[in-house]
Amino acid sequence: MTLRSRLVHVRRLTVTAVLTAVLSGVAVPAFADTPPTTSAPSAAFSSASIAKAVAPAATVTTAVAPATAPATAPAKVPQQSEGFFKSRTGMIVLAVFAVGTGYAIYSAKDDRIRGLNR
Question: Can you say how many angstroms the Cα of residue 99 is from the centroid of all Cα atoms in its chain?
Fold first, then answer.
């Protein structure tokens, strides 16, 4: 590879990196959610927040108490989410993405057509 060819590749990579950085910096604030115009939210553990969260649950449990309910209900164990990329499907998606990216890099590097307009 000649020096000129190498400089062209470095210049393209630099321009692409700078353009990506600028667009990322502009896009994040542009797509950010606007803050609510209402009053500031109360603290998560304030007495008003707790009372508001507990009030609907208390009215539902007292109003719908069935007469034939078992004495001890089985406790439900909350299931923990593993996350998408830790699941089998997520691992397959990552593998396919890695293979595709590797092939794209290999193809760009070992392309038979060596022109500016390829």
Answer: 21
Integer Cα distance of 113 and 11 in angstroms: 20
Q: Do residues 49 and 43 lie in contact, with contact meaning Cβ atoms separated by under 8 Å? A: yes
Task: Give the global pTM.
Answer: 0.30
Reduced to 3 DSSP states, what percent helix, strand and coil does the chain have, rounded to the nearest 5? 60, 0, 40
Q: Using one digit for the tens of pLDDT, what is the confidence trace for 74-113?
A: 666 666 767 888 888 989 999 999 999 999 888 887 777 7
List all residues 6 or more positions away from 42 whose beta carbon is below 8 Å from its beta carbon. Answer: 48, 49
Structure token pair of residue 12: 């393209």
Query: Which residues are within 8 A (CB) of 43 and not within 5 positions of it... i.e. 6 or more apart?
Result: 49
